[in-house]
């Protein structure tokens, strides 16, 4: 199921700098959440497992089943929305997983995703947006007019923006040290830019669903690309400082505006 992935010189050096001893494993089958039996098999390749403890009271009754599983007692690795590379710090040492869905993708792009995961592991922040929002997740759900699945997507996007505000100075600093990975970071951002110009208008006209727009804009934030209102309010030092409560306040103001109430969409 798992095979250690050889790392190029640059990736090996980045691992040593940001997340020493982290295992990078190729996974035999795609997954959103690893089946429990497979997750338990990680004990064969790590020294210890210390499952993250999420409080079940943080999760609304109508939340997606994946959130209820995450807050349960079962050792849970991965969640919907993780993409082609996922990571966990619930093992000692931590693990970065490279999924087979990335087969055929350009090698440089895959290397960037692995490098991004290693930087995120090294930051020491929450592994999942539920750990970021904690009890504020219920407040986020109450602040919007979205259904439970769309709230999940929005929360994941908001968490990506928050994390991206921390990772992007690292990526920006790769200009001279690892220029090939810096170029991949820049290229990914440039690919997003054409889709951002009409984003606010598309949301207002109902041509783009709000969670999809948030996912796009929040991804752009981590690539240091200018984003339109109301998402530009997330690209601020205030978000760095206040975290989840700021995101909830932003959602309240944004959805008040979208629903026709007075007030701007900044936080």
SSE arrangement:
Layout: E1 2-4, H1 9-18, E2 23-27, H2 36-40, E3 48-49, H3 65-70, E4 85-88, E5 91-92, E6 95-98, H4 107-123, H5 129-133, H6 136-143, H7 148-172, H8 174-177, H9 179-192, H10 199-204, H11 210-222, H12 237-242, H13 244-258
Helix pairs in contact: 1-4, 4-7, 4-9, 6-13, 7-11
InterPro entries: DUF7089
Pfam families: DUF7089
What does this structure look like?
The protein is built from 13 helices and 6 strands. The chain has 267 residues and is of the alpha+beta class. It has 2 domains: 1-127, no CATH class; 134-261, no CATH class. The longest helix is centred in the middle third of the chain and has 25 residues, at 148-172. Mean pLDDT is 93; it is low at 261-267.
Q: What's a concise summary of this model?
A:
It holds the Pfam family DUF7089. By secondary structure, the chain is an alpha+beta fold. The protein contains 13 helices and six strands.
Rg estimate, integer Å: 19 Å
Instruction: Quote the distance from N terminus to C terminus.
Output: 45 Å
The number of E-state strands comes to 6
**Fraction of residues in H or I helices:** 40-55%
Task: Please indicate the percent range of residues in DSSP E strands (runs of 2 or more).
Answer: 5-15%
Major β-sheet profile: 4 strands, mixed
Question: Average pLDDT, to the nearest integer?
Answer: 93
Elements, N to C (H/E): EHEHEHEEEHHHHHHHHHH
Q: Tell me, briefly, the overall form.
A: globular
How do the strands of the widest beta sheet line up side by side?
1-2-6-4
Number of domains: 2
Helix/strand-derived category reads alpha+beta
Distinct helical segment count: 13
* Contiguous runs where pLDDT drops below 50 for at least 5 residues: 261-267
